[in-house]
Amino acid sequence: MTERRLWSWLAVALGGLYFLLPLVGMFDFSMRMQRDGYNFEAYRVVLADPQFQQTFGYSVVLALLTIALGILIVVPTAYFVRLRFPGLRPIVEFLTLLPLVIPPIVIVFGYIRIYNTSSALPLTGSWWGTNLLLLFGYATLSLPYMYRSVDTGLRTIDIGSLTEAAQSLGAGWARILAVVILPNVFVSVLSGAFLTFAIVIGEYVFAALLNVGSFGPYMVWMGGNRAYEPSALAVVAFAITWACMGLIQLFTRFSKFSSVRR
What we know:
It contains 12 helices and no strands. By secondary structure, it is mostly helical. It starts with a helix and ends with a helix.
């Protein structure tokens, strides 16, 4: 048993080194922009860049809108599938997995083909139309993660009893979803929201092919034109992603702690 545990820890250590050593090397390189030793000059240059502030702010707003749209679509869908149409669950699960199977470049080329300026709905012909198309595209990309998170949360509660109790008190469907169901799956929704945020922040294909100045294309442009700043930018993007993962764990543990205390 001791030997097996030793091999287990050795495998974990090797896996950790495999992932951490490139990050350490990248961080070390990002700190050498000035020749007089380690410094944060590359980070100062990146964070002070107006283009960074503009593209990152744009991506944050777009990520928040994507999260809101995903909640509006996924929570009612997952709720009614589990409550009223359980036979449709395999079909819905298959549809929500399609964004993982179909490459994003195929999806965005389909959007451009259908919604170009010569089509009946020329969304790519205006700034608002292009951003709306990008919003729906990101909602599609995040659909597998948001749906799985919400569906897992719905499994942990008795939605049938909660629905009957709310209806007996005179609540309509909208009130049931907003006041009864959503608070009970709030942690699951947050998990899907943080994953969606991480996906939107670093997404490149949709934004580049739709010619939108978001954070993903900015990182690629920076990588092709600068030396030290791209490493600093990659560290910042990595920190944002892992901050989202950490928040998921934090809210999950807080939810379990609150459930035990109740």
